[in-house]
Specification:
The protein is of the alpha/beta class. β9 and β10 form a beta hairpin. It has a seven-stranded mixed sheet, with helices on both faces. α4 runs parallel beside α10 and α5 runs parallel beside α6.
């Protein structure tokens, strides 16, 4: 078996590896809004490109307009926001700014978490989440030990499981009492915005939240993410970020995306409908799914099916790319992750899975 991509969306490499044109691949490995960005994003970019200064001027070092847009969108202060070209630079900056030495990492989790922690040369203690118990976060278990930070996601990746806000707040409060930071990745919280902990930034100086605007708004090629924290912690984090992390065009696009008032509710409604239909269809095939609140589903194939062979045959025979989960720590073999795409594309996926299961069963 050839090495599998460590991230979703790597169609060019897969095309070269398996001899299938990238244009013929249907990508279920990357969790991007399948309906594309708001139309206002495209029109704003076209207008911006008519102004040569967008290309000839350096970006604003303080990202003033973008921070104002984000602050209005999530009801925080601009001074509580730090911006970078993706989640990883923000996490790196937070680890440096907070002088964290020992981090607890609930797993399975996004594999860039451990990579970043080890790059920072800190001690990492994994905390295994049980699939049989729904990957739940146990507050006492997470806050007991000699670690000075906890890095976790809500909703989780790869499971999509959501921890309710009451429990997250209780976890952060307990961690504060025990001198621990909580580094909370809310990359997919736009699908459940009422469960975001953003409103608690002022109350808990030990809380740092990471957010993305590119997955939900289907603009990952522009690479924009932000962190929110107390003004003091945000200033420390900003001091550990390089200048000009994003382009003028990226800022224009994100401001336009956040200003669109109809797009979020429409996206959430469509995603929930599509995810529910997809989940039911997969369960009818004997494929186990977990209760996701995001735009993807974690699957467990029937026990007799080798998921690596299944993944490869889906690509070669059906030109459908799934996300292998073999590189997710503490996740047993047999798991795959699929994005929720359009209803038509989801139907193609279900049909291909049914055909392949029949031939492998």
């Amino acid at each position: 078996m050839t090495p599998l991509p460590s991230h979703g969306g790597q169609l060019r490499g897969l095309s070269a590896q398996f001899g299938v044109a990238a244009t013929e691949l249907l990508d279920f490995s990357a969790n991007i809004n399948p309906d594309g960005p708001p139309l206002s994003v495209l029109s704003s970019l076209r207008v911006a490109l008519e102004d040569v200064s967008v290309l000839t001027n350096y970006p604003d070092l303080d990202h003033t307009d973008l921070k104002l847009s984000i602050a209005k969108n999530i009801a925080v202060q601009p001074g509580q926001i730090s911006i970078a070209n993706g989640f990883v630079p923000l996490l790196d900056a937070a680890l440096k700014a907070l002088l964290i030495r020992h981090c607890l990492l609930p797993v399975p989790a996004f594999n860039e978490y451990r990579i970043a922690l080890e790059r920072a040369q800190m001690r990492v203690t994994p905390c295994h989440l049980s699939s049989q118990h729904g990957f739940i976060y146990e507050i006492e278990k997470l806050t007991t030990g000699d670690h000075d930070a906890i890095l976790l996601a809500n909703p989780q990746n790869p499971s999509g499981v959501l921890c309710n806000l009451v429990s997250i707040v209780a976890l952060v409060a307990q961690a504060e009492q025990r001198g621990m930071y909580v580094l909370l990745d809310e990359a997919f919280i736009d699908y459940e915005p009422a469960q975001s902990a953003a409103a608690y930034i002022d109350r808990f100086p030990n809380l740092i939240i990471f957010r993305s605007v590119t997955k939900f708004h289907a603009i990952p090629g522009l690479r924009v993410a932000y962190a929110i924290a107390s003004s003091e912690k945000s200033a420390a984090l900003q001091a550990n970020l390089p200048p000009w992390p994003i382009t003028n065009l990226a800022a224009v696009a994100v401001i336009a995306a956040l200003a669109d008032e109809t797009y979020p509710a429409h996206t959430r409604r469509l995603n929930e409908q599509r995810r529910q239909v997809l989940e039911i269809s997969l369960n009818e095939l004997g494929v186990i799914t977990y209760p996701s609140s995001a735009n993807f589903l974690l699957l467990r194939l029937p026990q007799e099916i080798n998921e690596l062979t299944f993944w490869q045959r889906m690509l070669i025979e059906h030109h459908i790319v799934l996300r292998s989960c073999r590189d997710y720590e503490a996740l047993s073999p047999g798991h795959l992750r699929v994005a929720v795409r359009t209803s038509e594309q989801n139907s193609l996926l279900v049909g291909a899975i049914a055909t392949l299961l029949s031939s492998m069963g």
